C-alpha cells in the first residue's frame, strides 16, 4: 500500500513537471511564432532606378551612368548583405507564398536600352543579382525589325528579352507601348489638357494593353507591374491602371517602400534615381540603413 502511495506521488510529481515543461515550451513556441510573424509582417524595399549605361564620359549625364558605377553598386550591395529581388518576389510575399530576404533591394532599369543587355545583363550574371527592365514596346518592335545594335541608342529586341528572361535573373515590366514622350502636350500617361475622360481612358488603355499583348505574343508572359514614364500621372490614372489588372506600380518618387501583406502596399512604389555623381557608398549611405 505504501509503495502504491509513493508511486502515485511520484507520478503526480512527474505530471506537474511535464505540465510545466509543456507550458514553457508552448510559451516559447508562441513567442517565437509571434516574433517571426512580427518580422514577416512587412518589409522595407528600396528601389533603385537606372536608365542607360555608357562608358564615354561625354555621353554620361543625369540618366546615363558608366557600367562601372553599376558594377560598384552591385559589389557594395553584396558586401552589405543586400539581396536583389524582383516584382514577382514582392507578389509572392504579399500572397503569403514565401518570405523576402532580410535585406531586399530592387534594381530597375527604365526604357530598355540595348546597353542594358550589353552591360547590365552580364553584370547581373556575374554577381547573381536579379534586375527588372521596363522597355518601351514600340522601340523594341522597331529594333527587332532591324540589325542595328548601337550601344548608345539602340533598344533591346524581343530575342534579347527572351534570352534574358530565360536566365531567371531578368524580369520585364510594362513601360507603355508608345506613350513614353514629353512633347506636344503629351507627358507620358498623363491626361492632356482639354482631353475628355472617355478619350483619355481609351488612349491609355489602348496603348498599355497593346504592350501587354506584345509581351504575351513574344514571350508568353504578361507584366504585373506598370512603370510610369517620367513618374507622370493624372487624378484617375492610378485607378485606371488597377482596372487593367496591374498589381504593382513604380513611380519616380524618392522613398523607401514598406511592403506588407496588404496588396495595396504594392502600388505607387517609389524609386531613387541613380546618377553617376556619387560613389556607391555615398549614394546608398543616404537611403539604406
Write the layout of secondary structure elements.
Layout: H1 2-40, E1 42-45, E2 47-50, E3 52-53, E4 64-65, H2 67-79, E5 83-84, H3 87-94, E6 104-111, H4 114-127, E7 131-135, H5 137-144, H6 158-166, E8 170-172, E9 182-183, E10 186-187, H7 197-219, E11 225-227, H8 237-243, E12 248-250, E13 257-260, E14 272-273, H9 280-285
Parallel strand pairs: 2-6, 2-14, 3-4, 5-6, 6-7, 7-8, 11-12
Antiparallel strand pairs: 1-13, 9-10
Helix pairs in contact: 2-4
Describe the structure.
This protein has 289 residues and is of the alpha/beta class. The protein contains 9 helices and 14 strands. The chain has helices at residues 2-40, 67-79, 87-94, 114-127, 137-144, 158-166, 197-219, 237-243, 280-285, and strands spanning 42-45, 47-50, 52-53, 64-65, 83-84, 104-111, 131-135, 170-172, 182-183, 186-187, 225-227, 248-250, 257-260, 272-273. Strands 2, 5, 6, 7, 8 and 14 form a 6-stranded parallel β-sheet that branches. Strand 11, helix 8 and strand 12 (248-250) form a beta-alpha-beta unit. Helix 2 (67-79) runs parallel beside helix 4 (114-127). The radius of gyration is 25 Å and the shape is globular. It starts with a helix and ends with a helix. Mean pLDDT is 90; it is low at 1-8, 14-19 and 24-38.
